[in-house]
């Protein structure tokens, strides 16, 4: 894994960014909170579609970023990469979610 920080690194591709992203999510509780937040985002979208209540979509950033940032500030004890790399971080959230679902990476922070 890389030990680069988001403050001193400019990434030219998501492929180069993702190892850094995973390094910023080594703590199992942080990864779990990201995973929960992603499920809640999907739940909010599903609820909006099922009920036709599009106003609840405002909750997406609250649940998505809320859970993730609690993980960073209180467990990982680092600054979310979203602050410096918002697009790559958003993509990273969903790739990590997929990688957890498919068993490629663990919620405990270990890579398989």
Q: Topology, pairings included?
A:
Blueprint: H1 14-23, H2 28-51, H3 59-76, H4 86-101
Helix pairs in contact: 1-4, 2-3
Provide an overview of this structure.
The protein has 112 residues and is mostly helical. The mean pLDDT is 91. The longest helix has 24 residues, at 28-51. α1 (14-23) crosses α4 (86-101) and α2 runs antiparallel to α3 (59-76). It is built from four helices and no strands.
Keywords:
mainly alpha, 0% strand, globular
Q: TL;DR of this structure?
A:
Helix content is 61%, strand content 0%. It has helices at residues 14-23, 28-51, 59-76, 86-101.
Number of E-type strands: 0
Proportion of residues in helical segments: 55-70%
Shape: globular
Percent in strands: under 5%
For the termini, the CA-CA separation is: 13 Å
Largest sheet: none
Low-confidence stretches: none
Rounded to the nearest angstrom, the radius of gyration is 14 Å
Q: How many helical elements?
A: 4
Give the SSE order as H and E letters: HHHH
């Amino acid at each position: 894994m890389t030990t680069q920080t988001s403050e001193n690194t400019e990434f030219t591709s998501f492929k180069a960014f993702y190892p850094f992203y995973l390094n910023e999510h080594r703590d199992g509780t942080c990864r779990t909170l990201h995973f929960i937040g992603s499920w809640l985002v999907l739940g909010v979208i599903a609820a909006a579609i099922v009920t036709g209540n599009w106003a609840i979509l405002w909750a997406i950033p609250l649940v998505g970023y809320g859970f993730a940032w609690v993980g960073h500030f209180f467990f990982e004890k680092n600054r979310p990469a979203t602050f410096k790399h918002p697009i790559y971080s958003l993509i990273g959230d969903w790739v990590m979610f997929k990688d957890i679902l498919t068993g490629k990476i663990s919620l405990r922070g270990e890579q398989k």
